Amino acid sequence: MPSAMTTNDIGGASPLNTNGLCLLSLDGGGVRGLSSLYILRDIMAQLNYERVDEEPLKPCDVFDLIGGTSTGGLIAIMLGRLEMGIDECIAAYSELMHLIFGQKMNNLPVDWAGNIRAQYDSTKLKHAIEHVIEGAGVAPDAPMNNGQTRRCRAFIARLRSYDVTNEDTIPATICEAALATSAATGFFETVSIGEYKFVDGAFGANNPMEEVEEEAADIWCTTSRELRPLVKCFLSIGTGAPAKAPIDDNMLKFLSKTLVRMATKPESTERRFMARWSKELREKHVFRFNVEQGLQDVHMTDYQKRSAIESATYDYLHHSSQKGRVRDCIVNLLGKEGKTDIDFDIVMRAYETQELRSQVIKTIHSSSASSVPGKEPCWIVPFERNHRFVDRELLGKIKRKLFLGRQMQRISIVGLGGVGKTQIALELAFQVKEIFPDCSIFWIPVVDMESVQQAYQNIASQLGIEIPDEDEKDVKKAVQRHLSRPQSGRWLLIYDNADDLSMWSEVSPGLGSEGLREYLPKASSSQGAILFTTRSHKVAQFLASTEIIEIAEMDEHKATKVLKNLLVNKSLVDDHESTKKLLDRLTFLPLAIVQAASFMNENLMDISSYVELLDGQAQDTIDLLSQKFEDEGRYKSIRNPVATTWLTSFDQIRRQNTLAFDYMAFMACINPKDIPVSLLPPASPVEREKALGLLCSYSFIHSPHSGSRLDMHRLVQLATANWLKSINTLHSWHFYALRHISRHYQPNCDLKERSEWRAAMPHALQILHLTSSEPATLDTVDLLSNIGYCQRIDGRYKEAIENLTLALENSVTMLGHNDERSLIARGYLASSYQGLGEFEKAMSMFEEILDQRKSAHGLECVKTNQANLDLAIVYRMRGCPENRKNDVQKSVQYLQRAKELASQGLRYYMRNFGPENDDTLFAISILTQVYLAQGRLSNAGELAQQSLAIHQNVLGPDHLGTTAAMTTLADIYMQRWKLRDAQLLYAEALTRAKKFLGPGHPTILRDMHQMAWTLKLQNRHSEALALMTECVSLGEKSLGAKNYTNEETRQCISDWTVALATLKGSRSSRSYFQISRLTLSHYRNPGTRLKFYFVQLERSNMMLKRRKYYPKVKILGGLSSVRREPKDDPIIREIKDAVNCMTIPRHFSSGEVTLMEGCSVRKP
């Protein structure tokens, strides 16, 4: 079907005959909806038969709007949203009815409380609908309105497949919309979408003709609400006339039968509608088809009576009284040449006005042999029509705003340079010329004052206005006076590229006191309209107040269509993956798409090759986007290439606001997405808001996160960098950005600041990348070191090692091994190796740091004792049984060394700072872990309880130091077989720590691993296996598949899966200890077997001995080491005495007290 209306439509045949609205309304009726489909099938078959040698049409190709209620709504979704053919729809609908009405769920219509209840299974209904949607090649969770322009609009209630101005549309998936329209009272349960509850739309409105009428008015004639003059064909199809039946006086029958009939009765709607549309009914624009006989005894759930429905419908259609009506409907639909544009009411008004004018002129000149022809309207437009233009819906919105008011309208369309504003204005001019043949159209390019002056002189000449050559101001004033008069007729004035505010508001030579705005036609002319195109929101608001239309980014569908129209080889877009990549790289910007297509056409290049060029070095991309190309829709004096199209705007910004220019230059040096406002160069709040407002007004940046984060258009960033390079300032801006970010990026472990430095990290990495080819500076060292520190805290050890190694190398080269920067970087690097389990490297580096600290500062120094604690952590982790790569004696030595270092550091902090200091707490935590690793469970338990109490009071429950203390105590409880207590502590610690560390952090993974073991040892096998499986999944994402902890965890899953299956098969016939031994045999990993054996042994010891005795045997990796624990550890006594003597103030510290992952180095 042709899609465009020509000029001949005006003054000749009515546009209604070729482009009028075709609406389809579908009644509800359950299984009887098949009758509606059979009627529509007959109409479509005859329609396609008449269209000889043309592609068969679907209902979505013919009708502009399809609406339905109840199961009619289901059919509307199938035909309109899923764009099914009629035969495909009948098959799917038949299967759907069979599935949902095959068996009743409840025979009684009410429950014992008197509430109406569903008779059929709503779950079956949902599954059946999902099956239909998937059969159409669409995902069931796809949105009803996915933002794409479709061949047809479909709606049910407030659930639409399209947007409607000033109307709320409830966001729903296709499946939710189908369920909502099917929630028939008494048949299915109500459906909730968000805060809305839906029952079947047929309740009181089974014939949706009035709803379709109202919806069409909301779309095509919002202001006038006069829909009837716009309708070419209104087709309503019923589901068969119901039998006449009295209202039952029996309550049960009333609820089960009469209520259903009342909820699905369409006759009264039909009578009201036909009375209002009687004129259109006589003119054969309205058709209602509804089987009158044969379906009275077919209930809406009688799916088995399909043949009876088909037979009755066939008889109805082939009755002599209906054949002529069907033929009239088909003839009407055959005249439809294209889908109806959103502005069709304007077209019809123009046609009616023109017809009336023609009649008046004909009457006036009927007695005269000849008539004087009227003056031709003016046409001053500098470009030819772009026949590849695609965004017609936006044009409809613009035309409505311009021409439906009673006063002269001013509208600004605003958008980024290259987004297509000029093309929109150009297409508008040609369409207005078609709709209003008597309309004069004037185009004024506001490129500079000379262009404006020449345009006004041209307009004056065509209007026949004589102006003295010596007075330029009189030209603009005379044109203004002429267009302000009612006698001037209809006109459209387009100011293109109105970007410079000073031209409109400031006094300049040849201008009045208000700039160009003083010469705009006055509002006394009701037939005039003014359109401005501009890149600046400030200019748009200055010229048109609130009447602003922002040109948004193209969607993928429209952008693909533009690209295909521009390419010589259209088949290139069949490479969907490369096409999507290209459009993403070009940010869907029309000008960039035009340039890319021109380059590919000229060089016979395919899309994937062009994408490879775009993905090269930044300078290569700039060079590519700087290629000149011909564009007939742009001014010769304006730069066409994408890389240079914004240079004029850049100059305007630099003149207007130097801070805005600084922000643009700074943002050209960092990542273009998700820029924290706090990262920008410092300025007062007022000045900052003014600068950002100016950049937003040019659409160079926008704020998708409520002002706290900014995004810069990717191509604008490239163009800005190119501009800075052209004026020889890019290099200096790179180093300014490096220095600024390095000084701004001072992270610590305060949880409140973590989100800030995480957001700043991509930008810090970007500026490091841009300056990587330059000699390193101290700013480079500091930034690399701080980034590595943050990555280490987040458990990104491999990335941290890479950056910290580079920081250390640069620092040593510039400052030497013993400089503070070098020591800090070495400490961060050692902790990162420790996090990865490379303990030998970590120990070596921490030993070097400790030796240097001792020689430089002595033993009584904070930095020396920090180094003691850092080294203690590594020795403790190296000596733990799970990390043992040596014999038991070595482990004992490592743990003894860890105990000495931790005790030394703890005593120093206790003497100098007291037990409430966060460094003291850190030392207590380390010593507790050492005791635990040594098997001194009683000592470790006492210390852990003291530590947790102090942490909770000093740091609060949500501090990471507190959660670390919780997990330490949980570890002790686990080994002492207090499994329930351990599980509760692990669960609480995980809940609190996940808020700050994220699910994949090593600390979280370690605690998940331990909690899974507590569940396993409580015989909660399924829960344990599920948690351990989740732990593996998260660990592989964050630490890599070969990480040492992850390897052990995967082995546990394998063993537990086999053991669980064995337990299920053996539980009924074996005792617990028999099962334990059997389960133990399935553990292939020796460490896992020994761990399982250890907890059983510990449990037995607890059952046989009183808890006050210390165990005589400590298992180290399965080997026994006989010894006794000290009964009265001196350092524990010192801590208890100190705690008893102090009053603990409640406060929250910002220091790091992170233990589980072994990340112990703190900021000095």
From TrEMBL:
Keyword annotations of the record: Hydrolase, Lipid degradation, Lipid metabolism
Keyword Hydrolase in annotation: yes
PROSITE patterns in UniProt: PNPLA
Motif range (GXSXG): 68-72
SUPFAM superfamilies, A to Z: FabD/lysophospholipase-like, P-loop containing nucleoside triphosphate hydrolases, TPR-like
Catalytic residue list: 70 (nucleophile), 200 (proton acceptor)
Protein name: PNPLA domain-containing protein
Species, as recorded: Penicillium atrosanguineum
Source lineage: Eukaryota, Fungi, Dikarya, Ascomycota, Pezizomycotina
